[in-house]
Amino acid sequence: MSVTPISSQPVKKRKTQERAEATKKKLLDAALKEFADRGYEAVTVRDIEALADVQRGLLGYHFGGKENIWKAVISRMTTGYLEYRKVRLDVAQDLSVHERLAFRIRAFVRYSAEHPELHQLMMQEGNRDTWRLRHLVDTFLRDSSPDLRQLAKTDLSLSDEDFAHWYYLYLGAGALVFSLTSEAKHLFGVDVTKEEFIARHANFVADFLTGSFPSPKEEAAE
């Protein structure tokens, strides 16, 4: 009775694919750090490959060049945020408008604490009229803000102009501190990566932006 040999090709193919995915992840992680820390123009392909500790030429092989890996970094970051937000908003559908707005703010603070590089990337790109800023606006920002705008306008009776002011308070209050970890430690003696700080900051920002701070009389009564 003869036994048909099992081909090793599927195993080899799977291992090759796994190595390729691991290399792509290393390149994306390195590119995110470099672009967030230094900005697109200051970073070279070789900088990313060196930080990722991969052979020269692999970034071009997997992504085609610096522009494409920047877009891939943005896609990964923004998709991650939108998925994170969707899960939480699904849970909050039965809440009042005011509660949903506060919930949305707290979720943004928590995501910013976990992924400060997203805010750092936005700061790198937000002040220059480049193809990268237009890409961010067209593929992410324009679609991510209407529901937040509607919640804020409904709950707080904001005009379109007032929402613009509120929106940038939301971004700065919610995310900035997590990009200033060393300053916060030396200036105030706080560790912004600790859960206690993140939870308090999330509640503080939500109360601030929704006008929910207790009055002195209410605090005294408590």
Mean pLDDT: 90
Major sheet size, sense and barrel closure:
none
Label the structural class: mainly alpha
Total E-strand runs: 0
Helices, by number, come to 12
**Helix and strand sequence:** HHHHHHHHHHHH
Characterize the overall form.
Answer: elongated
Which stretches of 5+ consecutive residues score pLDDT under 50? none
Evaluate the radius of gyration: 22 Å
Number of domains: 2
Query: What percent of the residues sit in helical stretches (DSSP H or I)?
Result: over 70%
Strand content: under 5%
Distance between the termini: 86 Å
Structure overview:
It contains twelve helices and no strands. The chain is an all-alpha fold. It folds into two domains: 10-70, Arc Repressor Mutant, subunit A, CATH 1.10.10.60; 95-211, no CATH class. The longest helix has 30 residues, at 9-38. It is elongated.
